[in-house]
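Workshop exercise sheet. Pairs work together: one partner reads the sequence aloud, the other fills in the structure field after running the prediction. Swap roles for the next sheet.
Pair: D.N. / O.F.
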Amino acid sequence: MRVGAIDVGSNSVRLLVADVRLEGGTPVAIQTVARAGEACRLGRGLARNGLIEEGLASRAGNVVHDFARRARDLGAVHLVMAATAALRSADNGAEVAGMLERRAGVRARILSGEDEARLVYRAVVGGLGPVARSSSCVVFDLGGGSTEVVSGVGLSAGRWTSLPFGAVSLSERFVTTDPITPDESEALRDYVRAILMRECAYLPDRAPLLAGVGGTITLLAGLDRGMTAYDPAMIEGHVIPAGRLRALIERLVATSHEERMRWAVMGEGRADIVVAGALAVEVILERFPSAGLVCSTQGLRYGLALLAAEEAARGQTGNGDEVRR
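Structure field:
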């Protein structure tokens, strides 16, 4: 069954069109047909005024319109669009969701932190294969405005938390120099450390398998593999040993914005926020000691695609229309 998913995040809007194989109405395999992403930065300035800026919302509306059209042109029988931290927390989140819905012709769902966390966990562990499906796991999704952390065993998610920071919000709060100063770096680490200590108190002390997803993780994996062009096949399941990850983050923190912009693997809208994201990853590894970080490219949009396939199989799209046959 071919389905589409649009993930409206605080930094980027992402599209996935995928073929999902179901057995008894349950997804058992997913194959990527097309994927795309655009940096819309909906979370920019949100911490200061509580509102998503009109220009940023308008850009996101154009992107979801284009993505929905592309998904339908590729034969998606059902499309799910969901928004995360930016729309969850903005005073005008419902208004922006309504605009996105009209532009895409698809219901815009504002996910709760729990729904987001569980969708991500399912997608990441399922994508990593047999080892992850039989292991105790901690999965985190470092976004632009929030970070979801979920523990579980195999595909069964257990405890979860949604943390009030992401690469965009941390950058706006702590990064004022270029390169970042040691004092700013330590202030950011202390802030993230305090939140993790408080909000992750009931999660495991260690992570036999620690998996991360999101733009920061993608960049770290690309740098570790020496990639010159984005190739998800080279990133999915790649393990960065803990020592090498710390060295990689130290190198990243020492660079200027201009230097990072020259890296071939640097995606659009990433160079100015990746330092804050990388420092957050460093503290997460400190909180959940593991031999290394398992990198995933199958984040929320993959969880949404699995949800779309299940809804389509039931003939219940939640969009007020019938599933396309």
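Discussion prompt: The chain has two domains: 2-112, 114-300. What would you look at next?
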